[in-house]
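Sample intake sheet
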Amino acid sequence: MKKLLFLLTFFSLFTFSQTKENKTDSITYFLELANYSFEEKYNSKDAIKYAQKAIEYSKAYKNQEKLYDCYYFLGSLYLETNNFNEAIVNFIKCSNYYEINQVRTSKVAKINYALGTLYLEKRNFKIAKLYFNKSYSIYNAINSNNTLVLIELQKGLTLKANNNLEEAILVFDNIANTSRDIEPSKIEALYQLSKIYYSQEEYEKALDFSKKALKLVENNTVGISKKKILNNLILISEKQEDYKLSNFYLKEFLTLNEIKNNSSLANTDLLINKKEHDNQLEIVEKLEKEKNDQLKSIRFNKLISIMSIVLIAILSLLSFSLYKNNKIRTVTNKLLQEKNEELTEQKEKAELASNARSEFLSTVSHELRTPLNAINGITHLLLQENPKSTQLNYLKSLEFSGNYLLSFINDILEINRLESNTIHIERINFNLEELIQNIRESFNGFIEQNNIDFRLELDLENHKNLLGDPTKLSQILINLINNSIKFTKNGKVTLSVKTIKEENDTVTLNFIIQDNGIGIPEDKIANIFDSFSQGSVEINRTYGGTGLGLSIVKKIIELLGSEIHLESKVNEGTKLYFDLNFGKSNAEIILNHEKKKVTSYDNLKNKTVLLVEDNKINQMITKKMVENKGMVCTIIDNGEEAIVEMQNNTFDLVLMDVHLTGINGTEATAEIRKFDKTTPIIALTAISLNENKEMLLSFGMNEVITKPFNPEYFYSVISDYVV
């Protein structure tokens, strides 16, 4: 009956949410579902799913206020589940929105303070300090009494993060002794003191401070949770082997959960009894072990007494031998030490060479992006000006060469990223059938050019919507399909995907890419997945390529927890296959062909844009591109003048190059945001291994466009930010 009532309530709320007069009901409904899933059912996966659903409705209804409330809630969920990177991204979106709209409340202060602690956890003290300062500024503006104590808490947390534990103890001790009994700051200080003494194995002090924190948290509902303190007390008691006290706190912990879930306390008593039984067994086993050790010791002492007489005689004979052996050992140790020093030196040289290689490849590929942006940009502009038929082939060839070079540079950066172990694996909703169809369509021209019979064999058993990393899967399939088509002219290529295993919320799919092309010689198969490796020099000259594709595929598949297998015979073809695990998705995914396509950019006409760029060629290209859409462009070639220009004039959009002489783009943006919170600022940069989008957004930029940029993507992004 309860299930039926819940379904009827859900259906009525869903139907009601479709009316224009009650658009916010859907958002509030899914937020409440998310909160219920997390707080009552302890199901973080469902909570995140419902929060993302609320975000979709907020975007659909263009409800900015609710959207950023949803981002705040989703960031809090990721923070609770220790997914710090996702928490940072969602909190940054909120912080930028509230700062631009000049919202200064305690909630905004808490968001910035949370960002500060997260960056402190990542040991990025510069950005942590930036967000702490924002938090203090807001607390001061709203005349909050929390400002001074938060400054002290930040100081203590920073000292603890830097392992300056003695200084951190002084700061936390001062907060604990000066704050009022009901203040969350005092509870936090006592908890941090307990954690420090626990790490130093001073369990008595750790227990004392946790008890004080527990006593205060009974009268306080804000800040650190009672469950967190109880969990700490359980750990400390077990370290002291005080199992009675440990069971006492365990019972409180379990009772707290039982009360919250409105279930019987009988389960709690059962768990406590089991815990006590386990502790008694542990004590018995310990005593039994001590008894056995004593028996062994007695037998050993008897044996020693018997052997001691024999050993006295033997030792006199061994003394001379030991003297000789000692001399030999001294010489041997000296030789070993010299060899160890040589090996250490060679190891350091190898590491330096590897780092130098990675830095060189990253720098070269990064620096190539600026001239490549000029090549691709000028080619695009010339193609837009209706060239003569005799010139069209030249421009198409130039466009192809530019795209080929960009692909080569991207492969170099990708292999460097994979080797640096900084790749983040996403887990998002996507439609596998649509992803494969899009990849198939992207190869249409190449398939026709090589006269390929391309076939898709999909057996997904209704598992089209999945949870995983569609970008990484696309990289794998594009590289493998590209190789099969390239080395199979006038032949057949097959992509087969089938379900081979299904367990609970996980499904395992088998991918096979097979062709009847030129194949791979047997003596080359072992090294075919190495970087810059191809079958032979003749193959490289005939078919082209960087030799990085299969290496990238192998590393990505290993990151996803699987391995790739290869079977091949010369002139008969090649078969590559692998298995991947995905989560099942029940989310409603809007397919690309159902999405509204925007092909007109009329909203850009007569809008003013400030272009901050120090490269003359890039100035010319970018100015021409925006003017082609009817925009009015003003060019500044340095950060200092850009700040002055923004103080004296109003623009609809700012395109900011990151790498400028003098004040760079991030510093200029930070200065502009001090007096202009609303004008959209979009970064133009060739992001390398040392840069990331998250860092650029933290300075107040709204979006990042990577050079050399795709024209359609460029127009789409600036169109989204021009009102």
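Comment: Confidence is low (pLDDT under 50) at residues 1-21, 259-270, 540-544, 593-598. Residues 266-383 form the longest helix (118 residues).
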